[in-house]
Each structure stands twice: as C-alpha cells, then as structure tokens.
C-alpha cells in the first residue's frame, strides 16, 4: 500500500539516520536513506564520517547494489554527479532498478540541483519531492550556509 502516512514514516526514519551523522560529514551534508520493498525496510544508510560514502551508496551496498522494485526514501536529492568521478547516487539507484524515489529537499548546490532527478526520471523512475522538506532542511542548514553564492 502506498500512502502519505507510510511515506512519512519511512522519511522520518531516514531523517533520524541523517540526524545521527549530523556534524560528522563535512564537507558533505548529512543524508539519510531508507530502502523499502513491499512495505518492509530492506536497507538503510547515512552519509559516512567525512562525507563518504553517501547515504544511498551505503544503503545500496548492503543490498549488493540490487533493489529491484523498491522505493528509496532520501532526505536530500540523490546526487547526479560526483566531483571525485565516483558513480553518482542517482546512477546507482537506476542500476539497482528501484521503481520509486521519494526525497525531501532539493540539492541546494546551484551546480548540482536537479541533475539527479533528471537522471532518475529519464530512466523511468517515479520521483516525488518535498515530503517533510521542512524537517529535513535541518540536515543541510550548515551546508547551505557555506555554499558559494549563485551568480
Ligand atoms: Zn550521492
């Protein structure tokens, strides 16, 4: 079953994961990710100390990179490009064959925003944004403060 209540429950859990790493992930924002299949959490992750791995990367690694038909709940838009050349989280989610991605906040970086979303949608993945965005914004507040000003 799909519903606002269920989605909020899983996003709340993702938020908790992100909060547990808050302050430890500089220079990256702390992110929480929960992967659910048939209403059951099959994997979860948070951004690692020092910013790596990313939350989605950690959660998918626990599944061997396979999450066919699952829904991923992420507190922040999955990244579309990695500055270090590593596979982006949006690409990993595509390869894992998730069917739906629900994320709270859009990537606040002017250079990264929407790239991940476009990649997911291009692969036919259902994308929903904004769920609990106000609550999850607390995870990226410091990150946003230190962003270069968009010109
Ligand atoms: Zn990422």
UniProtKB/TrEMBL annotation:
Name the InterPro entries for this protein.
CMP_dCMP_dom, Cytidine_deaminase-like
User: Domain CMP/dCMP-type deaminase, which positions?
Assistant: 5-128
Report the Gene3D superfamilies cross-referenced here: Cytidine Deaminase, domain 2
Q: What is this protein called?
A: Bifunctional diaminohydroxyphosphoribosylaminopyrimidine deaminase/5-amino-6-(5-phosphoribosylamino)uracil reductase RibD
Pfam families of this UniProt entry? dCMP_cyt_deam_1
| Database matches in PANTHER family | CYTOSINE DEAMINASE FAMILY MEMBER (PTHR11079), RIBOFLAVIN BIOSYNTHESIS PROTEIN PYRD, CHLOROPLASTIC (PTHR11079:SF162)
The record's annotation in PROSITE patterns points to:
CYT_DCMP_DEAMINASES_2
